[in-house]
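Protocol step 4 of 5: obtain the predicted structure for the target chain.
Materials: sequence only (see below). No template structures provided, no constraints applied. The aim of this step is simply to have a reference model before the mutagenesis design in step 5. Sequence pasted as it appears in the construct record:
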Amino acid sequence: MTTPVIGVLALQGDVREHLIALASADAVARPVRRPEELAEVDGLVIPGGESTTMSKLANLFGMMEPLRERIAAGLPVYGTCAGLIMLADKILDPRSGQETLGGIDMIVRRNAFGRQNESFEAAVAVKGVDTPVEGVFIRAPWVESVGAEVDVLAEHGGHIVAVRQGNVLATSFHPELTGDHRLHGLFVDMVRAAG
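Step 4 output (structure tokens):
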């Protein structure tokens, strides 16, 4: 597979920025809103946004079960911020009716780094990336704990902010907002390797 087709779950959140980042990392990027569009991609990005809203919309659009099935079957997936929450097996403080897709054996805390006005940027050293990436943390979650199969890729302030389990990658921060597309490049390489 030379040029993988990677979808961005386009129900809510910063879809456009991920499409641009993936295209710059040599992937064919397209929005995904329906099960038939999900069936056509080699990998998927779940963007930042609002995890409770994303969960409700995924159910409304009939996407929750197809997403769970494809992730369980090994589809490479990368989640940022709300996407990290969606990929968690457990949320410490879920909103009423909030569901996750699962995929990473981790427990996450929503909005752990604070409210919107406490958003910040920080250099984050990520395993597998040669120099630190600029992490944009917007109402960002952190990972409270991980299972034995989860590889911790980065921490910030003593908290886990990037993880990988098999074909599933997740970050608390938004690399798509910085112009540094190395994490998207890492994900595109994961998709190629899985193909």
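Step 4 remarks: Helices lie at 15-24, 35-38, 51-60, 64-72, 82-86, 182-194. Residues 2 and 91 are 36 Å apart (CA to CA).
Proceed to step 5.
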